[in-house]
């Protein structure tokens, strides 16, 4: 059962992985993803930097798509700035460690979710907010896992510092939806897109077979019962 993030997400331990339970998500991340992510910290940092920049890009894209919507700009402009601050924070840590930013083949997750966005308004706007919120929610969930389980204390601190803002980000997208559409309609579409988000994640194996922030790895039992 998917619920809106009206309050901060709660974390609960699951067998096999101390997985964070995020209310938007239809299935939690698996221990297998966490193991892969912990094994490739440098790769994950590079991917993380790309994710932060993409999150800023999504917020900017929405501002360009709806240029006369000042209420939207009031929310998305600070959000885009904050994502770029995160990008810079990750870059700074990478520089300290001698890790260069390089292009990475993205997992198909984001493209798959974008395909689910309806083309006609107002469905397009609602879906765009919900998809952006779901991606934020998944990022938050996985950062929470790394903040708790990464063996490297500096990485635990980095992910821990970013958690609060990422939780706020999916809350912001939820509020944008709630201000514009009836709650029941938002909930219904969120349920559909959250199920798709899990399917997109299950299929999101990068071509090089390694790990990404949004690569495959969810608890299968939870998928079956969701
Ligand atoms: Fe961020
Ligand atoms: Fe974010």
General description of the model:
The termini are close together. The chain is globular, with a radius of gyration of 17 Å. It has one domain: Ferritin. About 65% of the residues lie in helices and about 0% in strands. α3 runs antiparallel to α6, α4 runs antiparallel to α7 and α5 crosses α7. The N terminus is likely disordered. The chain contains eight helices and no strands. It has about 230 residues and is an all-alpha fold. The chain binds fe (ii) ion (FE2) (2 copies). One fe (ii) ion binds next to α6.
Q: What's the CATH topology name?
A: Ferritin
CATH top-level class: Mainly Alpha
The major beta sheet can be summarized as: none
Give the termini separation. 7 Å
The CATH architecture: Up-down Bundle
- Beta-strand percentage? under 5%
Count of DSSP H/I helices: 8
Structural class per helix/strand content? mainly alpha
CATH superfamily: Ferritin, core subunit, four-helix bundle
Total number of beta strands: 0
Ligands in the model, by name, code or SMILES, are:
fe (ii) ion
Please tell me what the overall shape is.
Answer: globular
Helix content percent band: 55-70%
Instruction: Please state the CA-atom Rg, rounded to the nearest Å.
Output: 17 Å
Mean pLDDT: 88
- Unreliable stretches covering 5 or more consecutive residues: 1-20
SSE order: HHHHHHHH
**Number of structurally distinct domains:** 1
